[in-house]
Amino acid sequence: MAKIGFISLGCAKNQVDCERMMYRVQDSGHTVEADIAGCDVVVINTCGFIDSAKTEAIDNILQAGALKSAGMVGKILVTGCLSQRYQQEILDEMPEVDGILGTGSYTEIVPAIEKLLNGEKVFDFGDIDAPEVETGRVLTTPEHYAFLKIAEGCDNKCAYCVIPSLRGKFRSRGLDEVLYEARVLASQGVKEMIVVAQDTSRYGTDLPGGKRLLSTLLRELCKIDGIHWVRLHYVYPDEIDDELIDTIANEPKIVKYLDLPIQHCNDKILEKMNRRGNGAYIRWLLPELRRRIPGLVLRTSVITGLPGEGEEEFIELCDFLKEQRMERVGAFPFSPQEGSEAALMDYPDAEIAQQRAEIVEELQSRIMDDYNESMMGKELEILCDGYDEESGQYYGRSYADSPDIDGRVWIAADEPVREGQFVKVCIDGSIDGELTGYIVED
Predict the structure, then answer these.
(1) In 7-108, which residue ranges form alpha helices assigned H by DSSP?
(2) Are strands 254-259 and 297-304 parallel, antiparallel or unpaired?
(3) Which of 96, 270, 295, 299 gives a 20 to 30 Å CA spacing to 288?
């Protein structure tokens, strides 16, 4: 038995991959440690999509390398998107790394660890287009919520993105397999199921039953005892149909929150980026969703400084955001990725892209202030996420808040509140953009 430590970086989908590797390691008889110091092998599951993610991954590898030099860890194994993207470079330029696994080789985590323990090097890259292999998970989220990954890979070929070359073609997991995992998670105390994939709206298009399967999956998830909230992320606008809208509207367990990654609203930019749909469709869709799903909160991400974005196109984006008033918007400056089509196009310099992202953030903060003001006096169901010693307050999330990317609701309570408990809170203020309130009787 060896002690194995894990560091998971990047998105929720990467986190699920890490949880599956942890399960395989634990199931093989090794122990999974919370602290990497003293571990025989440290597994660093990396993101390699944008420059900041690459920097974070490299920093973590170097920090683990320093512990290795000090004799505090044994071997270092790098997995995930960075290793898939920079295969030989990692071994050539980072001597502290003892092995790397590509994104098609997660299932080989145990043999890889055993090779390292035997003094062998590991350099293993499997088929990134292979079907998902089902296995258990060791949850690294709080026990009351979990990410449910329903597909792997992507077929969208957006010009700025290299994900298809790192993760392979789009592959849906089987409906029965997803539902089985959801039932297991619910039996372990998970109350909020957050449905993720690179493109959740494509779920089932490669399976018998086609695109109707996403609505079927959501309805079946809502039948599982113990699941109280179902949350949808990464729903591409062009794949939303009447059945999906009606399912979200009519199922009480599906929170009225949609993550729709639009990236921009200008037709010229959308076309250059190989995005499906156009600005007119998006401008029609968002009000239609709000009309048919009362109380809907919309999250999106936009990229500033994309190829083709001059002042006129950027002003159009800002006007669009003011007009649509989406409650949650993440703005990211364009980061040209080696190997992508967009990296070969003309684009504004990095400083302009950053400045534009900051303008969008300032614009959005005013929209958020107005949204928070509209919440005053309302009673919301809040899922408690924990207790803050410094403030002496509990904190949690409403249906409008997804963990890690949205804000918190701060809760004044006379009696203890359990982590994972749902409470009704009357909103009475906001601090630094986050709502505050007090518990009222249900």
Answers:
(1) 12-27, 51-69, 81-85, 87-93
(2) parallel
(3) 270
Sign of CA dihedral 188, 191, 194, 195: positive
Q: Calculate the CA dihedral of residues 177, 178, 181, 187 and round it to 10 degrees.
A: -120
Tens of pLDDT along the chain (442 residues) come to 999 999 999 999 999 999 999 999 999 999 999 999 999 999 999 998 778 888 999 999 999 999 999 999 999 999 999 999 998 899 889 999 999 999 999 999 999 999 999 999 999 999 999 998 999 999 999 999 999 999 999 999 999 999 999 999 999 999 999 999 999 999 999 999 999 999 999 999 999 877 679 999 999 999 999 999 999 999 999 889 999 999 999 999 999 999 999 999 999 999 999 998 899 999 999 999 999 999 999 999 999 999 999 999 999 999 999 999 999 999 999 999 988 999 999 999 999 999 999 999 999 999 999 999 999 999 999 999 999 999 899 999 999 999 999 999 999 998 999 999 999 999 999 999 999 999 998 6
CA 128 to chain centre: 20
Task: Please count the helices (runs of H) and the strands (runs of E) in the chain.
Answer: 13, 19
Q: Which residues, listed in sequence order, are joined to residue 76 by a DSSP beta bridge? A: 42
Tell me how far CA of residue 101 lies from CA of 83, 117, 151, 335, 417, in angstroms: 7, 15, 20, 25, 42
The helix or strand, by DSSP H or E, that contains position 117, with its residue range, turns out to be helix 109-117
d(CA 237, CA 312): 24
For 296, which DSSP code? -
**Structure-token match 């005892």, residue found:** 225
Determine the Cα–Cα distance for residues 172 and 218; give it in Å rounded to an integer. 14
Distance CA 58, CA 163 (A): 19
Angle at 158 between CA 152 and CA 161, to 5 degrees: 70
d(CA 222, CA 186): 11
**CB contact at 8 A, 48 and 86:** yes
What DSSP string describes 228-291? -EEEE----GGG--HHHHHHHHH-TTEEEEEE---B---HHHHHHTT-SS-HHHHHHHHHHHHH
Please give the structure tokens belonging to residue 382: 């809040």
Q: Which pairs from 203-210 meet CB under 8 Å and 24+ separation? A: 203/150, 203/151, 203/172, 204/172, 204/175, 205/170, 205/172, 206/170, 206/171, 206/172, 207/172, 207/174, 207/175, 209/175
Of residues 6, 67, 60, the one with CA closest to residue 37: 67
